[in-house]
Design goal:
Elements lengths: L15 H11 L4 H7 L18 H9 L3 H5 L20 H6 L32 E2 L1 H6 L26 E2 L24 H16 L1 E3 L4 E3 H15 L3 H4 L3 H11 L18 H19 L32 H20 L3 H11 L7 H14 L16
Antiparallel strand pairs: 1-2, 3-4
């Protein structure tokens, strides 16, 4: 295969069809034309963002020079097993993905569930909700790049501009109509809790790990932690029992109805766009409450969100070391300081200290003079050394 003459570099986090649309635009073509040139025929090119046909990525890498791993990461299939355990829906996948960890609720409170046609984070075919960043689409020339995360309910804000992702009802990849015929939504900033949660999600997607207060965890752990929180916040009152007070407090502080107002239980991926937004906001609130110790989670993994232990010390106190030799010398120094303090007021202690310091003087009177001089500097009266001050003298 010969390379295509022009192929702009992919943007970090970009969806595969977004990159193909930008390549096609540079050649005055459509995505379907590029797909056909690679030897494939797709009724819906947007399916490339989910599961590209076998061999498609290798052929695309040959035409563009981009690494296959880079191209694969632009699809949901490329996010397995980090974001997704498996791409094909499985009834038992729900319990496997959402019950391995616990944060707010104690282990064993939520019952196992079998959800047909379920994939983590990926809505049903009829429930795809497309969000986009108004500033990203405004600053880029058509066709503007769009993120893979805009296609799934995983983040609430743009990792670049930190404004809220807005619902987009137009055709995917044609966001420029927001700012022409439709006027476009005004960017809305998000609060610090949402921004912090989304920054971690973006870090997981782009680096493969997340820095939590006490530990750095793998991206797969982060996605399951976040999905576990959403499941706990959506747990029924029967499942929560008396521990429901924790989830209710989170919902109250987030300013939304408990369980985002849902009545029969449904997995997060099957909720409405508004319920998904409220659930993610509640998750961000829960993380903030855990990190500030306002709320104490009862799950095993709640400790991951605790702030690091206070390692500072009082600068006025000596540093305590665990080295045994240093500890022994510190004890000797403390004993000597206490003896000197007592010798300043007690003649017997002063004489005992003097005798100890001159024990090995031999015939050297210089040592006696040095010790007497040191006693004077330490404030120990020299008259205490006279035999006349010995209480045991006959």
């Amino acid at each position: 295969m010969t390379r295509w003459p022009v192929h702009p570099a992919p943007v970090p986090g970009e969806a595969l069809t977004s990159w193909l649309r930008r390549i096609a635009h540079r050649h005055g073509a459509e995505v379907q034309d590029l797909v056909l040139d690679l030897g494939y025929c797709l009724s819906c090119p947007e399916d490339l963002d989910t599961v590209p046909p076998e061999g498609f990525i290798d052929h695309l890498a040959a035409r563009t020079g981009a690494a296959t791993d880079t191209i694969r990461a632009m699809t949901l299939n490329g996010q397995t097993p980090w974001l997704l355990d498996q791409l094909q829906p499985a009834a038992q996948a729900y319990t496997t993905y959402t019950r391995q960890l616990t944060v707010l609720l104690p282990p064993g409170r939520r019952r196992d569930r079998a959800v047909d046609h379920w994939r983590p984070w990926a809505p049903t075919d009829a429930g795809w909700q497309h969000r986009a960043c108004p500033l990203c689409t405004m600053e880029s020339s058509p066709p503007c790049p769009y993120q893979l995360t805009w296609l799934v309910p995983l983040m609430l804000s743009c990792p670049v501009h930190h404004c809220r992702l807005e619902r987009y009802n137009g055709p995917v990849g044609y966001h420029d109509i927001w700012h022409t015929s439709l006027g476009g939504p005004a960017p809305r900033p998000v609060n610090a809790a949402i921004r912090r949660m989304d920054e971690r999600t973006w870090q997981a997607l782009t680096t493969g790990h997340v820095a939590l207060p006490r530990h750095r965890v793998h991206a797969g752990i982060w996605f399951r932690l976040l999905r576990t929180l959403l499941d706990e916040l959506g747990a029924t009152l029967t499942e929560c029992g008396t521990y429901g007070r924790l989830t209710r407090e989170v919902w109250e502080r987030a300013g939304h109805p408990v369980r985002a107002g849902q009545h029969p239980w449904r997995p997060y991926e099957h909720l409405t766009d508004q319920q998904q937004t409220q659930s993610l906001e509640a998750a961000a609130t829960a993380i903030h409450l855990l990190e500030t110790r306002v709320l104490a989670g009862l799950g095993h993994e709640a400790a991951l969100f605790l702030p690091p232990p206070n390692m500072t010390r009082d600068p006025g106190r000596p540093h305590q070391t665990m080295d045994p030799t240093a500890l022994r010398w510190q004890e000797i120094k403390d004993s000597l300081d206490a003896t000197v303090e007592e010798a300043r007021t007690t003649p017997e202690t002063a004489r005992q200290l003097f005798n100890f310091c001159t024990m090995y003087r031999g015939e050297d009177d210089h040592i006696v003079r040095e010790v007497r001089g040191s006693f004077t500097k330490l404030g120990i009266p020299l008259e205490y050394l006279s035999p006349m001050n010995d209480p045991h003298r006959l």
